[in-house]
Amino acid sequence: MFAVYAYVRRRVPFLAAASAFVFPAATLAVFYAYEGRAYALLFASAPLALLAWQRAVERPTDPLRLALLTGPCVSVPSRIS
Question: Which pLDDT value is given to residue 13?
Fold first, then answer.
C-alpha cells in the first residue's frame, strides 16, 4: 500500500494520497489477500509495477531506467501464472 501512496503523492496533495493509501484496506480486497491465494500477489505487485512504470517514464535520462522498466515486466507475468 505504500507504493499506492508513493504513486499518488507525486500527482496530488497529501490528503488525497493518504486517502488512496487507506482505500485498499477499506475494501473487501483485504479479505481475499488474507486467504493466501494469488490475490495477495496481485494486490501487492500491481502497485509496485505501476510505481516503477511511473518513475521510469518521468525520468527518461535516469541510468536506472532499464531496471525500473524491468519491474513491471517481471511482476506482470508472475501475477498471470
Answer: 92
Residues with Cβ within 8 Å of 39's Cβ and at least 6 positions away in sequence, in order, are: 29, 32, 33
Q: How far is Cα 81 from Cα 66, in angstroms, rounded to an integer? A: 24
Cα–Cα distance, 71 to 53 (Å, whole number):
8
Are residues 43 and 24 in contact, defined by beta-carbon separation less than 8 angstroms? yes
- CB count within 10 Å of CB 22 equals 11
- Listed by start position, the domains of the chain span 2-80
What does the pLDDT look like over 2-45, one tens digit per residue?
888 888 888 899 998 888 888 877 777 666 666 666 666 777 77
